[in-house]
Amino acid sequence: MPTPDDADPEVEARADVDAVMTPGRLEAFSDAVIAIAITIMVLELKIPDEATLDALRPLVPVFLSYVLSFVYLGIYWNNHHHLIKRTTEVTGGILWANLHLLFWLSLFPFATAWVGENDFATTPVIVYGVVLLCAAIAFFILQTVIVRHEGPDSPLARALGRDWKGKLSPTLYAAAIGLAFVNRWLAVAVYALVAVMWLVPDRRLERRFATG
Amino acid sequence: MPTPDDADPEVEARADVDAVMTPGRLEAFSDAVIAIAITIMVLELKIPDEATLDALRPLVPVFLSYVLSFVYLGIYWNNHHHLIKRTTEVTGGILWANLHLLFWLSLFPFATAWVGENDFATTPVIVYGVVLLCAAIAFFILQTVIVRHEGPDSPLARALGRDWKGKLSPTLYAAAIGLAFVNRWLAVAVYALVAVMWLVPDRRLERRFATG
Amino acid sequence: MPTPDDADPEVEARADVDAVMTPGRLEAFSDAVIAIAITIMVLELKIPDEATLDALRPLVPVFLSYVLSFVYLGIYWNNHHHLIKRTTEVTGGILWANLHLLFWLSLFPFATAWVGENDFATTPVIVYGVVLLCAAIAFFILQTVIVRHEGPDSPLARALGRDWKGKLSPTLYAAAIGLAFVNRWLAVAVYALVAVMWLVPDRRLERRFATG
Amino acid sequence: MPTPDDADPEVEARADVDAVMTPGRLEAFSDAVIAIAITIMVLELKIPDEATLDALRPLVPVFLSYVLSFVYLGIYWNNHHHLIKRTTEVTGGILWANLHLLFWLSLFPFATAWVGENDFATTPVIVYGVVLLCAAIAFFILQTVIVRHEGPDSPLARALGRDWKGKLSPTLYAAAIGLAFVNRWLAVAVYALVAVMWLVPDRRLERRFATG
Question: What is the 3 state secondary structure string of C160-173?
Answer without folding.
Answer: HCCCHHHHHHHHHH
